[in-house]
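Thread amino acids onto this structure.
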């Protein structure tokens, strides 16, 4: 088979406070994160959003030590995976490729080409697929492959999503059981699954399977746990004015408090490493929301990190991928859309999908322009005297 490599894909995070602004700019420059009809708008809007959010984000990172632990944990997962594979008789080099911060995906690709890797397994550290997480990294890799003739010589296979993997489900069930067993009455504890949200349009318009996979993953974890506890699934981390998947975590916590829930355990279902969304958003912000709603006993299940059963799940995924036919990037980047996100080259007049898409995009651009002008005090409306 030749030299084997495993490329672990993840989001990335700022290592220190000075990195927060550039990290946010990279994040919002990705068209899979913010979808605009005109690509030339992407970078100016990214700069604007990053500039507006930087101080708040820096304050959040200060609350968890001044930077994200994501790189350190991901590299530790890679080392544990390498050891586990070796114990199972499979030698492999492990590479970490982050989407929005160091070590960037491009850096990882440069390393593995230098190492003369002959067979590569591409493994995203997102159990469930979304166009804004795994999908974004896959599109970047597809572009890199198309541009690099040396890279094209490497045989590779992709693991699109793996939320059904038995050892992963077992690891999650064990982590949940450890937390609920800390309560006097474990079977009465409400299990609250909190997944990272995505805009509703990603699912309804672009055909993103994320919501379906999150819901199925929740079901499978509860089946594996095999406890009588009541559970809830909600979505966190909403950004901007558009509608995201519901229920929102904050609203669901308030509702449960109103219903009289006192004992609750949060499960960060879409995260496999501790980072800002678990350590700050859940542990600090949502804990406060829960306590104000009357949920007095609030605990959180830790992310799998380097849990032995979870690392075994990753190893099993790699070994299985090496034994099966290759799965190509083009098979996961060319998704079947439920409706067209952008109009065809030939315009369709009337009340059509084409017209509605453009109407929505133009309205969004107008809204963005108005917000920017209100904040900056400069723009067309000020020039013609409609705003002072």
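Threaded sequence (388 positions):
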């Amino acid at each position: 088979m030749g030299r084997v490599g495993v490329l672990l894909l993840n989001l990335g995070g700022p290592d220190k406070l000075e990195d927060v602004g550039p990290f946010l700019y990279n994040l919002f420059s990705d068209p899979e994160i913010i979808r605009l009809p005109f690509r030339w708008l992407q970078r100016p809007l990214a700069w604007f959003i990053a500039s507006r959010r930087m101080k708040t984000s820096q304050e959040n990172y200060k609350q968890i030590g001044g930077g994200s632990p994501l790189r350190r944990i991901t590299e530790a997962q890679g080392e544990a995976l390498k050891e586990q594979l070796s114990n199972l008789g499979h030698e492999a080099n492990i590479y970490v490729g982050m989407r929005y911060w160091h070590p960037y995906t491009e850096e990882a690709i440069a390393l593995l080409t230098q190492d003369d890797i002959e067979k590569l397994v591409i493994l995203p550290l997102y159990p469930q697929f979304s166009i804004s997480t795994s999908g974004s990294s896959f599109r970047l890799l597809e572009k890199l492959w198309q541009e690099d003739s040396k890279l094209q010589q490497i045989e590779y296979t992709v693991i699109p999503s793996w939320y059904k993997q038995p050892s992963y489900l077992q690891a999650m069930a064990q982590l949940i059981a450890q937390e609920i067993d800390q309560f006097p009455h474990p079977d009465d504890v409400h299990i609250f699954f909190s997944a990272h949200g995505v805009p509703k349009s990603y699912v309804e318009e672009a055909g993103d399977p994320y919501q379906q996979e999150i819901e199925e993953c929740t079901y499978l974890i509860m089946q594996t746990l095999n406890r009588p506890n009541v559970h809830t699934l909600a979505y966190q981390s909403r950004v901007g004015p558009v509608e995201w998947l519901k229920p929102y975590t904050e609203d669901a916590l308030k509702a449960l408090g109103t219903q009289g829930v006192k004992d609750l355990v949060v499960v960060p279902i879409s995260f496999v490493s501790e980072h800002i969304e678990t350590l700050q958003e859940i542990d600090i912000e949502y804990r406060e929301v829960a306590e104000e709603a009357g949920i007095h006993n609030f605990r959180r299940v830790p992310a799998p990190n380097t849990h032995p059963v979870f690392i075994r799940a990753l190893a099993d995924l790699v070994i299985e991928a090496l034994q099966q036919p290759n799965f190509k990037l083009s098979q996961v980047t060319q998704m079947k859309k439920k409706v067209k996100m952008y109009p065809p080259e030939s315009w369709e007049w009337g009340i059509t999908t084409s017209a509605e898409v453009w109407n929505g995009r133009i309205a969004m651009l107008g809204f963005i322009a108005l917000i920017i002008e209100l904040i900056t005090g400069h723009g067309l409306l000020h020039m013609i005297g409609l705003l002072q």
